[in-house]
Design a protein that fits this description.
The structure holds 2 protein chains of 2 kinds. Chain A has helices spanning 2-15, 49-58, 126-130, 152-155, 162-165, 183-190, 213-216, 224-239, and strands at residues 35-40, 71-74, 81-84, 106-108, 114-116, 137-138, 145-146, 172-176, 193-194, 206-209. Chain A is of the alpha+beta class. The chains are: A alpha+beta, B alpha+beta.
């Protein structure tokens, strides 16, 4: 892997840009599909089943996650309150991560999944910087950009994404936003839903029921646990 | 050294097509991937992902299996909920790839699949086809997902170990299975430290172990066996220890887990022996009150409660409150004002609830119609789904010989038949006449006197009057002052609880594990009695029970055999035996000495007190043990204060001569063992379990080896494990119930018990036939479910008419009654028959072995106190010990998850949580290192400053602070078994537990009534470390 990455970096440096256009293979019937997710925050218990299932399913290295559920303690007039916020790639309609890719390694499939072709990625990290949702990272093991694919390898087989399959609270609902009869469409029709960071106008395809505006506008809301985790990690590094 | 997930799953992702031909599938593994995304692109986008286990035809919905993998249904043991899971296994490598839920299991699915759904259709029902997998999704929780790392862990013990250094030194050598069996059975000079009696010599069923105290039973009781919770494998160990070996010392872990809750329910539900308990009907309740329990954050069944709470928050008109010193994910921000967190001082829930009860009684907000029915017959006539003893008269004089007992017909009238003598007496509604509790309503409140048949007059009161007396001992203002919850809030909780009829439910759990735990739990569950919600849709349920497995069933009797021993004697820590019946008590009385206090508490009506066993056998009160076997249990980690109390004595072979541990890992208890017997982890093991609670339909979950065990094999191909250890010890000793003629079938023929399958598959035959036989499995279904891998064992072990039916059950990971059979009209189809006890006669007529006073037989509020009755707050005043420590259950951790790389990755350490106001006073910020000191210990860790914790409280998440489970190195022969860098991180609040200073013989602090261990409300002070 490392050598291939080095090779690609050199190629990039030499030619200015390596442009390959991935061919979207598609049959007629899938053109009508557009994947999306609704997360009903009233049902999320913060158990991290999705987090672990995703790591196992997608073989994501330790210390990195394609999805995670930070839990916040929000303070309000009625006292403190627990808010779990499942986070993942929003598979945006206007993904800020795509135009910045110098090699067109990242693209949107006909069904709306924002994906990275690892064979093309040169690990420049521009997309990681561009994503307002902290949903991308450079995978320690593969050395290239990595992110949630909506488990495209499973949905293509007629299965559900790993995180959805194992969601204990049944909070994550996945389906076809183009199908008015789908569960996601019905939930959107019958509930107030919000997307994260509306100010970026990304057109996210992950919709939240019960999202507090305090969490909608920022993904880096602090909180004791997060601070502690960072402290812990630094402490552990010092010891090691 | 760390294990990376990559390493664990190495090989798992390799595509291999070799097995396809063998399985007779047309497609090869490689061909399987030719899906909708072209192959080259799939490599680039999802190369790292696991190959899907099957695919579903978008037109027909038919599931097409990946020939390289199998999906099998078995039982999880990531915590104690024992959920049904589906395990995806790579056939070539024998690696577990991933787990999720078993769609047939009501513990993992809401609602679960009809049982007759074909196994291949079940896969379709889990898929995206017609969105079936959204409604039908079957889950594993975060911990359940992560638990796969256990199976492949490098910390596992795979061969028998014998210590070569001192106990606890971490120096071992591998020995053969034969040597293990020989040495532990025959004894000898095993360690060069002198002669050690083996299991054979200890088994003396005739000679009293202490002639001075014959009630202690025979010498065989000096073998003490400490297994884990009811994990589905318990009964083969029980068969060995109790029924074959004949020691009465075989115990569960309840006394350090949630005994106070179980005992509180047991008192209310009139079954102190079996300790049944209730769960709210989450699907239909309109108001729920959780005190010291946090559904969705912890509890049992953890996952199902999480699912059902999620669903409840999507229902119109549902409200609930969580009373807890610590804010957890049981409260949900997105659910808004329909749920609330009520912070409370640790250990004082009882004050809050007795305040609620006072208000409910004074304002007549109870269900008078329900409570007025004195018998099942009256309840039935009145259309009630249960009944209570609210109206029954109690002899209201603690010092009277019959004090605390019910007034019964035989006490008033002579010459009645036995059944009639026992009938309780109440007062006819309206006339106030004394009548036997029968078909008509009775008076709820009365205090007066009654003249007995012998002419004496005794004071009497109804159960409900006695509850009112206890509830009115303090004013609402006083209750509020004790618990720190404002008076208005106590009232609003009581109002909410009594505003929705019987669709209100109250529940509690481990938050009550402090020294007023029993009465606290009894008070909380009493709220259910006051609204009469038992068996009612939207109220509470005792669960649907299980299919017969090891008990005498339609095919075999696994618990009865020729030569079965009936155990006798007092258990190793004075549980379930009245102090007044001991020789010690009688000697003191004869010598005209005050027999109270006892040297340490005796608990007359509780179950065996496993939590105190290690300590009591080291102290020798009531007696010393000669050998201990722990199996997958870890009291040293799990019992508050135990480690400090035993660590000097447990390493002394003169005090405890032989210590054997059976465990896949070295834990804080087995570190002290002389021998470690390797064991299967749950994916590899056999067993049968049921739901612990919360499942209203009948449920039996199967455990079977869905992957080949990693433990070493013996020459006869058996795997080294717990089952085989007990089998081989029993056979070597010639014990009854093992060997050739051991297991009777329903015709009385005897079948052998040489291998674990001999036991567990026959239990499976009972499950398959109980209440009507299930159909036979065809060959294809066994292939789909992976049961094909145990087909030869099924055929070899079971009868021709049995094995395919048992395969049918294993195909589905157990046997489950259909969800449609949950209710019959507005009541649960499976209902609990005994009445709700406002006054429990057994409790109310028993004396405290330390103070000599009679216990109150109904809920009451008494602040947490020491064994001599002194309040903890007097002994450890707030001025000096301003904090109270609570252990909070983790969503991710359990005591057995130490060293799990997935969990460490998410949060490798816990912290010391404290309230922001307290932190400000002490100038403590999140991340600061602080020390917490209690009367029993001192721990250091990092502070986590929160608003979501009551002032004066320290909250510590359980499951961290391991000293073993991968936290240190061991040496086995010349090889170092290296620890994991993160495994010991964090702190264990049990290190702050302490021994009761008021007992002559050492005991860890416990509830005076039932002996549940006090792991909550521990006094403490904080120092900031600079």
């Amino acid at each position: 892997m490392a050598s291939r990455r080095e090779f690609l970096k050199l190629a990039l440096a030499g030619s200015g840009a390596v442009v390959t256009t991935p061919v979207a293979a598609a049959k007629a019937e899938e053109k009508s599909k557009r994947w999306g997710m609704v997360v009903d925050l009233r049902k999320c218990i913060g158990c991290q089943a999705c987090t672990v299932a995703c790591s196992v399913e997608n073989q994501v290295p330790e210390g990195q996650h394609r999805t995670a559920v930070p839990v916040y303690e929000l303070d309000g007039p009625g006292g403190p309150s627990q808010a779990a916020l499942p986070r993942l790639c929003n598979h945006c309609d206007e993904p800020p991560c795509i135009p910045v890719c110098p090699v067109n390694a990242t693209f949107k499939t006909d069904q709306g999944n924002v994906v990275v072709d690892a064979e093309q990625c040169v690990a420049c990290g521009y997309c990681v910087q561009a994503c307002p949702y902290e949903a991308r990272f450079i995978n320690h093991k593969t050395g290239v950009a990595d992110k949630c694919t909506f488990c495209i390898h499973r949905t293509d087989m007629g299965l559900l994404p790993a995180c959805v399959e194992t969601c204990v609270g049944n909070a994550r609902v996945f389906g076809d936003l183009n199908d008015p009869g789908s569960e996601v469409r019905q939930l959107i029709a019958s509930h107030e839903t919000k997307g994260l960071r509306p100010e970026f106008k990304t057109g996210p395809n992950v919709y939240y029921i019960g999202l507090d505006d305090k969490l909608a506008s920022t993904v880096s809301v602090g909180g004791g646990a997060r601070d502690l985790r960072q402290t812990n990690q630094s402490a552990a590094h010092e010891e090691a | 050294m760390t294990i990376s997930r990559r390493d664990i799953l190495q090989g798992a992702t390799a595509l291999g097509a070799a097995s396809a031909a063998v399985w007779g599938f047309a497609e090869t593994g490689k061909g399987f991937y030719k899906g909708l995304v072209n192959e080259a692109k799939a490599t680039g986008i999802s190369a790292g992902a696991l190959p899907p286990e099957y695919k579903v035809d978008p037109e027909t919905g038919e599931a097409v299996l990946n020939p390289d993998q199998r999906v099998s249904y078995t039982m999880c043991m990531g915590c104690t909920s024992v959920c049904g899971i589906r395990v995806r296994v790579d056939k070539a490598s024998n690696d577990i790839l991933r787990v999720a839920g078993n769609p047939y299991s009501p513990l993992s699915t809401n609602p679960h699949l009809p049982y007759d759904t074909p196994v291949k259709d079940a896969l379709t029902r889990l898929s995206a086809y017609e969105e079936a997998g959204l409604v039908g999704r079957s889950t594993a929780c975060g911990r359940g997902n992560a638990a796969i790392a256990k199976q492949a862990s490098k910390e596992r013990i795979l061969k028998p170990l014998k210590r070569v250094g001192k106990r606890g030194s971490g120096q071992w050598k591998e020995i053969s299975w034969d040597q293990l069996i020989e040495e532990t059975v025959e004894g000898g000079d095993l360690f060069g430290e002198g002669h050690v009696e083996g299991l054979r010599a200890i088994r003396d069923l005739k000679t009293p172990l202490d002639p001075e105290n014959p009630e202690f039973g025979p010498k065989a009781n000096q073998l003490v066996v400490i297994p884990p919770f009811k994990n589905g494998r318990l009964m083969i160990a029980a068969r060995f220890a109790k029924m074959a070996y004949g020691t009465r010392n075989f115990v569960g872990h309840r006394s350090y887990c949630g005994l106070s809750m179980r005992a509180g329910y047991a008192a209310m539900m009139d079954n102190l022996k079996k300790q049944p308990h209730l769960k709210p009907d989450y699907r239909h309740a309109k108001y729920m009150l959780f005190v010291g329990t946090a559904p969705g954050n912890a509890g049992n069944p953890y996952k199902l409660q999480g699912t059902l709470m999620g669903a409840a928050r999507d229902r119109e008109g549902v409200k609930y409150a969580v009373v807890d010193p610590v804010l957890t994910n049981a409260q949900n921000h997105a659910f808004g004002s329909s749920n609330s967190w009520v912070p409370i001082r640790p250990g004082t829930d009882g004050a809050l609830v007795m305040g609620m009860i006072r208000w409910i009684l004074e304002n007549e907000r109870f269900d008078a119609k329900f409570l007025s029915q004195p018998s099942p017959a009256a309840a039935k006539a009145a259309g009630e789904a249960s009944w209570s003893n609210a109206t029954h008269l109690v002899i209201d004089d603690p010092e009277h010989l019959l004090g605390g007992r019910f007034l019964r017909q035989g006490m008033l009238v002579e010459g009645l038949e036995e059944a009639a003598q026992k009938t309780p007496i109440c007062l006819a509604k309206g006339s106030g006449e004394l009548i036997p509790a029968a078909g008509s309503e009775a008076e709820l409140f009365h205090e007066g006197t009654v003249t007995l048949a012998d002419g004496t007059t005794v004071p009497v009161a109804t159960s409900l009057s006695l509850l009112r007396r206890e509830a009115t001992r303090k004013t609402l203002a006083e209750y509020s002052a004790d618990c720190g919850v404002p008076e208005e809030r106590i009232v609003s909780l009581a109002q909410d609880f009594t505003s929705v009829g019987k669709q209100a439910a109250a529940d509690c759990h481990g938050g009550t594990m402090h020294t007023s735990g029993f009465y606290t739990a009894y008070a909380i569950v009493m709220l259910n009695t006051l609204v009469g919600n038992l068996n009612v849709k939207g109220g509470t349920t005792a669960g649907g029970g299980r299919f017969k497995d090891v008990k005498k069933g339609p095919r075999y009797n696994l618990l009865g055999f020729p030569g079965k021993v009936k155990v006798k004697g007092v258990d190793a820590a004075r549980g379930g035996f009245s102090y007044e019946k001991t020789s010690e008590f009688k000697r003191l009385v004869a010598a005209r000495k005050n027999p109270y206090p006892a040297k340490a508490p005796w608990h007359a009506f509780t179950q065996p007190m496993g939590a105190q066993w290690l300590l009591s056998i080291l102290e020798g009160y009531p007696y010393h043990a000669k050998a201990v076997i722990t199996w997958s249990s870890n009291p040293v980690y799990g019992v508050a204060g135990l480690d400090a109390a035993i660590k000097e004595k447990i390493v002394d072979p003169k005090i405890l001569p032989l210590f054997i541990s059976i465990d896949p890992f070295i834990n804080e208890t087995s570190r002290y063992a002389d021998y470690i017997v390797p064991d299967r982890v749950f994916y590899e093991a056999w067993g049968w379990a049921s739901a612990w609670g919360g499942v209203p339909t009948r449920i039996s979950t199967a455990r079977w080896p869905v992957v080949e065990p990693k433990t070493a094999q013996m020459p006869d191909s058996r795997y080294m494990d717990m089952d085989n250890y007990f089998i081989d010890v029993a056979k070597r000793m010639g014990l009854p119930g093992f060997g050739d003629k051991a297991i009777p079938d329903s015709d009385g023929n005897l079948h052998p018990l040489h291998r674990p399958e001999d036991f567990w598959l026959r239990a499976g035959a009972n499950v398959a036939f109980d209440g009507g036989a299930v159909p036979e499995s065809n060959d294809e279904d066994m292939i789909v479910s992976g049961v094909e891998t145990i087909r030869s064992l099924l055929e070899k072990t079971l009868k021709p008419e049995e094995w395919r039916r048992v395969a049918y059950v294993y195909n589905r990971g157990g046997r489950y009654e259909d969800a449609k059979d949950t209710y019959r009209g507005e009541v649960f189809a499976r209902s609990y028959k005994k009445g709700m006890q406002i006054w429990n006669e057994t409790v109310g007529s028993t004396r405290d072995s330390m103070t000599g006073e009679k216990f109150v037989g109904c809920p009451t509020w008494k602040a947490p106190s020491l064994a001599n009755g002194q309040p903890v707050d007097d002994r450890y005043p707030q001025v000096e010990w301003p904090f109270r420590v609570v252990s909070t259950k983790s969503q991710m951790r359990s005591s057995s998850t130490g060293g799990n790389p997935y969990l460490d990755d998410l949060k490798f350490s816990n912290a010391i949580a404290l309230n922001s106001e307290d932190a400000e006073k002490l100038s403590i910020k999140t991340g600061d290192w602080i020390a917490v000191e209690s009367p029993g210990g001192r721990i250091t860790g990092q502070a986590l400053v929160r608003k979501g914790i009551a002032t004066g409280t320290i909250g510590i998440e359980h499951g961290y602070g391991h000293k073993e489970m991968g936290a240190r190195n061991h040496k086995i022969g010349n090889v170092v078994l290296e620890g994991l860098s993160t495994a010991g991180a964090g702190i264990n609040s049990n290190d702050l537990g302490y021994a009761d200073p008021t007992c002559e013989k050492a005991v860890v602090l416990a509830d005076p009534v039932v002996g549940s261990i006090a792991r909550q409300a521990l006094p403490a002070k904080i120092t900031r470390l600079t």
